[in-house]
Amino acid sequence: MWVVVYMAHHKKDVDAIEDILGDENIPYKIRPVYKNIAPEENCFEIMVPQSEVGEVHNILMEYGF
Fold this sequence. Notes:
By secondary structure, the chain is an alpha+beta fold.
């Protein structure tokens, strides 16, 4: 089951989180909240498997998210 661990309000945050989770080899999905809005203006849900939630919260906090 996939769980939302962070709501990113800026595309630059999404890009940074993708880099962080990729470097940590953690599977993730990114889903835009709104359908008809440009990526620069949209919000995004960052989702990870339920088994990774605790680790991802700690990692994101280390990076200031």
